[in-house]
Amino acid sequence: MAQWNPHTYLKFGQERLRPALDLLAQIPLEQPQTLVDLGCGPGNVTALLKQQWPNARVIGIDSSPDMLSQARENHPGIDWIETDITTWQPDQKTDLIFSNACLHWLGNHDILFPKLLNHLNEGGVLAVQMPNNFAAPTHQAIRDVLGADHPLCPGYPVSDCRDYYQWLAPECERLDIWETTYTHVLSGDNPVADWTKGAALRPVLDGIKDKGEKQVFEQAYRKRISQAYPPLANGRTLLPFKRFFMVCLKK
Ligand SMILES: C[S@@+](CC[C@H](N)C(=O)[O-])C[C@H]1O[C@@H](n2cnc3c(N)ncnc32)[C@H](O)[C@@H]1O
């Protein structure tokens, strides 16, 4: 599996934090006893969950040892577990499963999401945020440069909101689904290409093994991105970024 780099990922930390805070603000729980952050990464969002509910047992789960070592170093008082979400089986049911910017990396949402709901206590909450910008130039440029049939091309992992509703509604008291497009104001030379390097581009760059080929790809990609997201007169670059949110309150 391609490795995550906490430093590259955290480069746009503030912009990446905002949707997590927007998700957190919608969780209808007073005093969860146990909560799990799936795909916790470097742990900065998990720490906010702990801050919101200091008496809860908080568990951060991730498959990346580099991300978890940063989380362990910076955030004591939280249990960090290295495991793959697709095979994760909790010892006991939990009150909250939170996941920010992770589940779009996993397939088979028709199986995964009902399974996650099953790991909740009665009245528990599944709260998920996923990017939903797979048709944007950031991703289309990868397909254009590699060719649409290339195995490293990104797919469209987030399903239609009606699908999530139908998979989950029978087990839910309330199901709140919404989408938001954030407009990130970025600085620097070709900052959108730097942004994708910390996420969508990561498996592509890891997957191109030949150094020369990687360089050619990256140059062509950066050129397309600088054309698709040109700087404004004040030097700033705007990145519109659509995200999908869901808060399910289990019956
Ligand atoms: C974009 S980061 C998000 C980190 C954190 N949730 C945040 O909001 O800052 C995605 C994280 O999901 C983790 N991840 C991806 N696939 C995973 C899987 N199958 N099992 C566990 N973790 C996974 C990655 O290792 C990475 O740390």
From TrEMBL:
Its main location: cytoplasm. The lineage of its organism: Bacteria, Pseudomonadati, Pseudomonadota, Alphaproteobacteria, Rhodospirillales. GO terms for molecular function: trans-aconitate 2-methyltransferase activity. CDD domains: AdoMet_MTases (cd02440). It catalyses: trans-aconitate + S-adenosyl-L-methionine = (E)-3-(methoxycarbonyl)pent-2-enedioate + S-adenosyl-L-homocysteine. This is Trans-aconitate 2-methyltransferase. The gene is tam. Catalyzes the S-adenosylmethionine monomethyl esterification of trans-aconitate. It is an enzyme of class 2 (transferase). It comes from Terasakiella brassicae. GO terms for cellular component: cytoplasm. Residues 36-124 form the Methyltransferase domain. Its EC number is 2.1.1.144.
